[in-house]
Amino acid sequence: MVTHALDWLDAVAQEREAAGLRRVLTPRSAHGELLDLASNDYLGLATDPRVVSAGVEALRTWGAGATGSRLVTGTTELHAELEAALASFAGTESALVFSSGYAANLAVVTALCPAGSLVVSDSANHASLIDACRLARGRVQVVPHNDLAAFETALAQRTERRAVVVTESVDSIDGDGAPLARLHEICRRQGAVLVVDEAHGFGIVGPGGRGALAEAGLAGQDDVIVTVTLSKALGSQGGAVLGPRRVIGHLIGSARTMIFDTGLAPAAAGAALAALRVLEQEPALGRAAIRVAGALAAAAGVRAPHSAIVPVLIGDPGEAVAAARRCAVLGLRVGCFRPPSVPEGTSRLRLTARANLSRNHLLHACDVLRVVLGRTDNHAIDSRDEDS
Ligand code: PMP
User: Fold this and answer.
1) Is the pLDDT of residue 385 over 90?
2) Where's the Aminotransferase class I/classII large domain (predicted)?
Protein backbone atom coordinates (compact mmCIF):
# COMPACT_ATOMS: atom_id res chain seq x y z
CA MET A 1 0.00 0.00 0.00
CA VAL A 2 1.38 3.40 -0.96
CA THR A 3 0.99 5.97 1.76
CA HIS A 4 1.82 9.63 1.71
CA ALA A 5 5.39 10.30 2.76
CA LEU A 6 4.17 12.56 5.57
CA ASP A 7 1.49 10.24 7.02
CA TRP A 8 3.75 9.37 9.92
CA LEU A 9 3.26 12.91 11.22
CA ASP A 10 -0.43 12.13 11.89
CA ALA A 11 0.56 9.20 14.11
CA VAL A 12 3.01 11.42 16.00
CA ALA A 13 0.31 14.07 16.42
CA GLN A 14 -2.11 11.45 17.82
CA GLU A 15 0.51 10.23 20.28
CA ARG A 16 1.10 13.77 21.45
CA GLU A 17 -2.61 14.36 21.85
CA ALA A 18 -3.04 11.16 23.87
CA ALA A 19 -0.13 12.10 26.14
CA GLY A 20 -1.54 15.60 26.80
CA LEU A 21 1.40 17.09 24.93
CA ARG A 22 -0.30 18.73 21.95
CA ARG A 23 1.03 22.23 21.37
CA VAL A 24 -0.79 25.06 19.67
CA LEU A 25 0.09 28.65 18.92
CA THR A 26 -2.29 31.10 20.61
CA PRO A 27 -2.03 34.55 19.05
CA ARG A 28 -2.06 37.41 21.55
CA SER A 29 -4.50 40.14 20.75
CA ALA A 30 -3.16 43.71 20.60
CA HIS A 31 -5.71 44.58 23.28
CA GLY A 32 -4.13 42.28 25.85
CA GLU A 33 -7.33 40.92 27.34
CA LEU A 34 -5.47 38.55 29.68
CA LEU A 35 -3.20 39.69 32.48
CA ASP A 36 0.28 38.56 31.51
CA LEU A 37 2.18 36.30 33.89
CA ALA A 38 3.71 34.23 31.12
CA SER A 39 5.98 36.49 29.10
CA ASN A 40 9.63 37.20 29.78
CA ASP A 41 9.01 40.94 29.67
CA TYR A 42 10.11 41.03 33.32
CA LEU A 43 10.54 44.78 33.56
CA GLY A 44 7.61 45.75 31.33
CA LEU A 45 10.03 47.46 28.93
CA ALA A 46 8.66 45.85 25.73
CA THR A 47 5.90 48.46 25.66
CA ASP A 48 7.71 51.28 27.49
CA PRO A 49 7.26 54.46 25.38
CA ARG A 50 10.99 55.31 25.65
CA VAL A 51 11.94 51.88 24.33
CA VAL A 52 9.30 51.84 21.61
CA SER A 53 10.18 55.30 20.29
CA ALA A 54 13.89 54.43 20.21
CA GLY A 55 12.98 51.38 18.13
CA VAL A 56 10.91 53.51 15.75
CA GLU A 57 13.72 56.03 15.41
CA ALA A 58 16.23 53.29 14.63
CA LEU A 59 13.83 51.90 12.04
CA ARG A 60 13.59 55.31 10.37
CA THR A 61 17.33 55.93 10.49
CA TRP A 62 18.64 52.51 9.50
CA GLY A 63 15.75 50.78 7.74
CA ALA A 64 13.77 47.65 8.49
CA GLY A 65 16.60 45.15 8.27
CA ALA A 66 20.31 45.02 8.98
CA THR A 67 20.77 44.26 5.23
CA GLY A 68 23.59 41.75 5.63
CA SER A 69 25.89 39.75 7.83
CA ARG A 70 27.66 41.62 10.60
CA LEU A 71 30.89 41.21 8.62
CA VAL A 72 29.46 42.79 5.48
CA THR A 73 26.82 45.52 5.87
CA GLY A 74 25.03 44.35 9.02
CA THR A 75 27.04 46.36 11.54
CA THR A 76 25.69 49.89 11.98
CA GLU A 77 26.95 52.55 14.37
CA LEU A 78 23.90 51.64 16.44
CA HIS A 79 25.15 48.05 16.84
CA ALA A 80 28.54 49.38 17.91
CA GLU A 81 26.91 51.75 20.40
CA LEU A 82 24.77 48.96 21.83
CA GLU A 83 27.82 46.71 22.22
CA ALA A 84 29.78 49.41 24.01
CA ALA A 85 26.80 50.09 26.32
CA LEU A 86 26.30 46.40 27.13
CA ALA A 87 29.98 45.87 27.93
CA SER A 88 30.10 48.98 30.08
CA PHE A 89 26.90 48.00 31.95
CA ALA A 90 28.10 44.46 32.64
CA GLY A 91 31.68 45.48 33.40
CA THR A 92 33.25 43.39 30.62
CA GLU A 93 35.93 44.45 28.16
CA SER A 94 33.86 43.82 25.11
CA ALA A 95 30.51 42.66 23.72
CA LEU A 96 29.13 41.21 20.50
CA VAL A 97 25.47 41.35 19.55
CA PHE A 98 23.68 38.47 17.78
CA SER A 99 20.24 38.10 16.23
CA SER A 100 19.12 36.06 19.25
CA GLY A 101 20.31 34.71 22.58
CA TYR A 102 20.05 31.27 20.97
CA ALA A 103 22.56 32.31 18.30
CA ALA A 104 24.83 33.86 20.96
CA ASN A 105 24.92 30.56 22.88
CA LEU A 106 25.63 28.54 19.74
CA ALA A 107 28.45 30.95 18.91
CA VAL A 108 30.29 30.82 22.23
CA VAL A 109 30.16 27.10 22.83
CA THR A 110 31.05 26.08 19.28
CA ALA A 111 33.82 28.66 18.97
CA LEU A 112 35.39 27.81 22.33
CA CYS A 113 35.02 24.02 22.19
CA PRO A 114 36.74 22.80 19.05
CA ALA A 115 37.82 19.20 18.55
CA GLY A 116 40.18 18.09 21.29
CA SER A 117 38.51 20.13 24.05
CA LEU A 118 35.94 19.29 26.73
CA VAL A 119 32.67 21.05 27.49
CA VAL A 120 31.03 20.30 30.85
CA SER A 121 27.35 21.19 30.68
CA ASP A 122 24.82 21.44 33.52
CA SER A 123 21.96 18.95 33.06
CA ALA A 124 19.32 21.68 33.48
CA ASN A 125 20.75 23.86 30.72
CA HIS A 126 18.44 25.53 28.23
CA ALA A 127 17.84 23.92 24.83
CA SER A 128 20.02 26.54 23.14
CA LEU A 129 23.00 25.46 25.27
CA ILE A 130 22.22 21.79 24.67
CA ASP A 131 22.13 22.42 20.93
CA ALA A 132 25.34 24.42 21.22
CA CYS A 133 27.00 21.40 22.85
CA ARG A 134 25.66 19.14 20.12
CA LEU A 135 27.21 21.38 17.48
CA ALA A 136 30.54 21.74 19.28
CA ARG A 137 33.29 19.45 17.99
CA GLY A 138 34.75 18.90 21.46
CA ARG A 139 33.68 16.15 23.86
CA VAL A 140 30.54 16.93 25.86
CA GLN A 141 30.00 15.77 29.45
CA VAL A 142 26.68 16.52 31.13
CA VAL A 143 26.72 16.73 34.94
CA PRO A 144 23.81 16.88 37.43
CA HIS A 145 22.27 20.31 38.04
CA ASN A 146 24.51 22.53 40.18
CA ASP A 147 26.52 19.49 41.39
CA LEU A 148 29.86 21.15 42.14
CA ALA A 149 31.65 17.89 42.91
CA ALA A 150 30.56 16.50 39.55
CA PHE A 151 31.83 19.60 37.73
CA GLU A 152 35.17 19.31 39.49
CA THR A 153 35.52 15.57 38.81
CA ALA A 154 34.66 15.99 35.13
CA LEU A 155 37.33 18.66 34.78
CA ALA A 156 39.95 16.91 36.88
CA GLN A 157 39.63 13.58 35.07
CA ARG A 158 39.74 15.00 31.55
CA THR A 159 42.40 14.09 29.08
CA GLU A 160 41.82 17.24 27.01
CA ARG A 161 43.94 20.26 27.79
CA ARG A 162 41.23 22.87 27.15
CA ALA A 163 37.88 22.85 28.91
CA VAL A 164 34.77 25.00 29.18
CA VAL A 165 32.01 24.86 31.80
CA VAL A 166 28.55 25.96 30.67
CA THR A 167 25.67 26.87 32.96
CA GLU A 168 22.77 29.27 33.45
CA SER A 169 23.01 31.85 36.22
CA VAL A 170 19.26 31.71 36.86
CA ASP A 171 17.54 28.53 35.76
CA SER A 172 14.99 29.32 33.03
CA ILE A 173 12.37 26.93 34.41
CA ASP A 174 13.00 26.75 38.16
CA GLY A 175 14.31 30.27 38.68
CA ASP A 176 16.98 28.98 41.06
CA GLY A 177 20.51 30.36 41.03
CA ALA A 178 23.79 28.60 40.22
CA PRO A 179 26.62 28.59 42.81
CA LEU A 180 28.70 30.82 40.54
CA ALA A 181 31.47 31.82 42.95
CA ARG A 182 32.27 28.21 43.80
CA LEU A 183 31.94 27.10 40.19
CA HIS A 184 34.39 29.81 39.18
CA GLU A 185 36.85 28.67 41.86
CA ILE A 186 36.65 25.15 40.43
CA CYS A 187 37.19 26.44 36.90
CA ARG A 188 40.26 28.43 38.03
CA ARG A 189 41.67 25.42 39.84
CA GLN A 190 41.11 23.16 36.86
CA GLY A 191 42.14 25.61 34.15
CA ALA A 192 38.70 25.87 32.56
CA VAL A 193 36.72 28.78 31.15
CA LEU A 194 33.31 29.53 32.70
CA VAL A 195 30.46 30.39 30.30
CA VAL A 196 27.35 31.70 32.04
CA ASP A 197 24.00 32.24 30.34
CA GLU A 198 22.46 35.21 32.13
CA ALA A 199 19.25 35.20 30.05
CA HIS A 200 17.11 35.28 33.21
CA GLY A 201 19.54 37.07 35.51
CA PHE A 202 20.52 40.07 33.42
CA GLY A 203 18.38 43.11 34.27
CA ILE A 204 16.86 41.35 37.29
CA VAL A 205 19.39 40.20 39.86
CA GLY A 206 22.61 41.74 41.10
CA PRO A 207 23.48 45.38 41.65
CA GLY A 208 21.20 47.52 39.43
CA GLY A 209 20.21 44.40 37.48
CA ARG A 210 23.80 43.76 36.36
CA GLY A 211 23.29 40.03 36.75
CA ALA A 212 24.21 37.14 39.02
CA LEU A 213 27.89 37.27 38.06
CA ALA A 214 28.08 40.89 39.27
CA GLU A 215 26.28 39.81 42.44
CA ALA A 216 28.93 37.12 42.96
CA GLY A 217 31.72 39.64 42.39
CA LEU A 218 32.69 38.00 39.10
CA ALA A 219 31.89 40.77 36.62
CA GLY A 220 34.73 41.30 34.17
CA GLN A 221 36.83 38.28 35.22
CA ASP A 222 39.21 37.34 32.43
CA ASP A 223 38.13 33.68 32.34
CA VAL A 224 34.37 34.26 32.46
CA ILE A 225 32.14 34.73 29.42
CA VAL A 226 28.53 35.84 29.66
CA THR A 227 25.67 35.39 27.25
CA VAL A 228 22.51 37.45 27.52
CA THR A 229 19.32 37.84 25.59
CA LEU A 230 17.90 41.23 24.68
CA SER A 231 14.42 39.70 24.60
CA LYS A 232 13.60 39.28 28.27
CA ALA A 233 14.39 42.05 30.79
CA LEU A 234 15.31 44.42 27.95
CA GLY A 235 11.98 43.78 26.22
CA SER A 236 13.47 43.77 22.72
CA GLN A 237 14.93 40.99 20.59
CA GLY A 238 18.44 39.66 20.05
CA GLY A 239 21.31 38.36 22.14
CA ALA A 240 24.87 39.18 23.08
CA VAL A 241 28.14 37.69 24.28
CA LEU A 242 30.00 39.77 26.86
CA GLY A 243 33.57 39.04 27.82
CA PRO A 244 37.28 39.55 27.26
CA ARG A 245 38.29 41.34 24.05
CA ARG A 246 40.20 38.36 22.71
CA VAL A 247 37.13 36.13 23.05
CA ILE A 248 35.00 38.60 21.12
CA GLY A 249 37.72 38.84 18.47
CA HIS A 250 37.73 35.06 18.17
CA LEU A 251 33.93 35.00 17.78
CA ILE A 252 34.06 37.65 15.04
CA GLY A 253 36.57 35.50 13.21
CA SER A 254 34.90 32.13 13.68
CA ALA A 255 31.36 32.07 15.08
CA ARG A 256 29.11 30.67 12.41
CA THR A 257 25.90 32.15 13.86
CA MET A 258 27.44 35.59 13.42
CA ILE A 259 29.20 35.12 10.10
CA PHE A 260 26.31 33.37 8.33
CA ASP A 261 23.38 35.16 9.95
CA THR A 262 21.99 38.58 9.09
CA GLY A 263 22.81 41.17 11.76
CA LEU A 264 20.32 42.13 14.44
CA ALA A 265 17.49 44.31 13.07
CA PRO A 266 18.21 48.00 13.79
CA ALA A 267 14.84 48.51 15.51
CA ALA A 268 15.69 45.73 17.96
CA ALA A 269 19.15 47.20 18.57
CA GLY A 270 17.74 50.68 19.16
CA ALA A 271 15.03 49.40 21.50
CA ALA A 272 17.52 47.29 23.48
CA LEU A 273 19.87 50.25 23.86
CA ALA A 274 17.03 52.45 25.14
CA ALA A 275 15.96 49.70 27.57
CA LEU A 276 19.52 49.50 28.89
CA ARG A 277 19.47 53.26 29.47
CA VAL A 278 16.18 52.92 31.37
CA LEU A 279 17.77 50.25 33.52
CA GLU A 280 20.72 52.53 34.26
CA GLN A 281 18.33 55.30 35.30
CA GLU A 282 16.03 53.01 37.30
CA PRO A 283 18.32 50.52 39.04
CA ALA A 284 15.55 49.20 41.32
CA LEU A 285 13.46 47.75 38.47
CA GLY A 286 14.92 44.26 38.84
CA ARG A 287 14.27 44.25 42.58
CA ALA A 288 10.67 45.28 41.94
CA ALA A 289 10.22 42.26 39.66
CA ILE A 290 11.63 39.95 42.35
CA ARG A 291 9.23 41.46 44.92
CA VAL A 292 6.25 40.82 42.64
CA ALA A 293 7.51 37.26 42.15
CA GLY A 294 7.58 36.84 45.95
CA ALA A 295 3.93 37.89 46.23
CA LEU A 296 2.89 35.53 43.42
CA ALA A 297 4.82 32.69 45.04
CA ALA A 298 3.06 33.29 48.36
CA ALA A 299 -0.35 33.15 46.66
CA ALA A 300 0.61 29.99 44.79
CA GLY A 301 1.89 28.42 48.00
CA VAL A 302 5.45 27.96 46.79
CA ARG A 303 8.78 29.30 48.00
CA ALA A 304 9.77 32.85 46.99
CA PRO A 305 12.39 32.87 44.22
CA HIS A 306 15.49 35.02 43.96
CA SER A 307 14.46 35.88 40.41
CA ALA A 308 11.35 36.82 38.46
CA ILE A 309 10.41 33.17 37.80
CA VAL A 310 7.91 31.31 39.97
CA PRO A 311 7.61 27.58 39.17
CA VAL A 312 4.49 25.78 40.39
CA LEU A 313 4.98 22.04 40.12
CA ILE A 314 1.86 20.12 39.02
CA GLY A 315 3.32 16.83 37.74
CA ASP A 316 0.84 15.53 35.17
CA PRO A 317 0.87 17.40 31.83
CA GLY A 318 -2.92 17.22 31.42
CA GLU A 319 -3.47 18.67 34.88
CA ALA A 320 -0.95 21.42 34.20
CA VAL A 321 -2.79 22.38 31.01
CA ALA A 322 -6.12 22.30 32.88
CA ALA A 323 -4.74 24.59 35.61
CA ALA A 324 -3.39 27.01 33.00
CA ARG A 325 -6.80 27.00 31.28
CA ARG A 326 -8.58 27.76 34.57
CA CYS A 327 -6.21 30.69 35.08
CA ALA A 328 -7.01 31.93 31.56
CA VAL A 329 -10.76 31.69 32.16
CA LEU A 330 -10.22 33.90 35.22
CA GLY A 331 -8.19 36.40 33.20
CA LEU A 332 -4.63 35.28 33.83
CA ARG A 333 -2.16 34.11 31.21
CA VAL A 334 0.41 31.81 32.82
CA GLY A 335 3.12 29.67 31.29
CA CYS A 336 2.59 25.91 31.17
CA PHE A 337 5.67 23.73 30.73
CA ARG A 338 5.48 20.07 29.77
CA PRO A 339 7.96 17.53 28.42
CA PRO A 340 10.21 17.93 26.50
CA SER A 341 10.66 21.42 27.99
CA VAL A 342 10.81 19.83 31.46
CA PRO A 343 11.53 16.23 32.59
CA GLU A 344 8.71 13.65 32.63
CA GLY A 345 6.44 13.95 35.66
CA THR A 346 7.42 17.56 36.37
CA SER A 347 4.91 19.48 34.25
CA ARG A 348 4.31 22.82 35.84
CA LEU A 349 2.95 26.30 35.63
CA ARG A 350 5.61 28.93 35.20
CA LEU A 351 4.57 32.34 36.46
CA THR A 352 6.73 35.29 35.53
CA ALA A 353 6.65 38.51 37.48
CA ARG A 354 6.59 41.93 35.90
CA ALA A 355 8.09 44.95 37.66
CA ASN A 356 5.28 47.21 36.44
CA LEU A 357 2.31 45.10 37.54
CA SER A 358 -0.15 47.50 39.22
CA ARG A 359 -1.28 46.75 42.76
CA ASN A 360 -4.77 45.91 41.54
CA HIS A 361 -3.45 43.55 38.90
CA LEU A 362 -1.22 41.88 41.47
CA LEU A 363 -4.13 41.43 43.88
CA HIS A 364 -6.25 39.96 41.09
CA ALA A 365 -3.46 37.63 40.00
CA CYS A 366 -2.96 36.40 43.56
CA ASP A 367 -6.70 35.79 44.01
CA VAL A 368 -6.83 33.74 40.81
CA LEU A 369 -3.79 31.70 41.80
CA ARG A 370 -5.29 30.90 45.21
CA VAL A 371 -8.56 29.78 43.62
CA VAL A 372 -6.99 27.70 40.85
CA LEU A 373 -4.30 26.13 42.98
CA GLY A 374 -6.70 25.52 45.88
CA ARG A 375 -4.60 27.46 48.33
CA THR A 376 -7.38 29.59 49.72
CA ASP A 377 -5.87 29.79 53.21
CA ASN A 378 -3.55 32.65 52.37
CA HIS A 379 -5.35 35.96 51.89
CA ALA A 380 -2.69 38.38 53.02
CA ILE A 381 -0.49 40.05 50.48
CA ASP A 382 2.70 41.30 51.97
CA SER A 383 2.59 45.08 52.47
CA ARG A 384 6.03 45.30 50.82
CA ASP A 385 4.22 44.91 47.54
CA GLU A 386 2.17 48.05 47.82
CA ASP A 387 4.49 49.99 45.58
CA SER A 388 4.74 47.36 42.90
N1 PMP B 1 19.06 30.99 27.20
C2 PMP B 1 18.05 30.84 28.04
C3 PMP B 1 18.32 30.35 29.42
C4 PMP B 1 16.74 31.13 27.64
O5 PMP B 1 15.72 30.94 28.48
C6 PMP B 1 16.52 31.59 26.32
C7 PMP B 1 15.14 31.97 25.80
N8 PMP B 1 14.10 31.24 26.20
C9 PMP B 1 17.60 31.72 25.48
C10 PMP B 1 18.87 31.44 25.95
C11 PMP B 1 17.44 32.15 24.05
O12 PMP B 1 17.32 33.53 23.94
P13 PMP B 1 16.55 34.14 22.70
O14 PMP B 1 15.10 33.98 22.98
O15 PMP B 1 17.02 35.57 22.65
O16 PMP B 1 16.98 33.38 21.50
Assistant:
1) no
2) 34-369
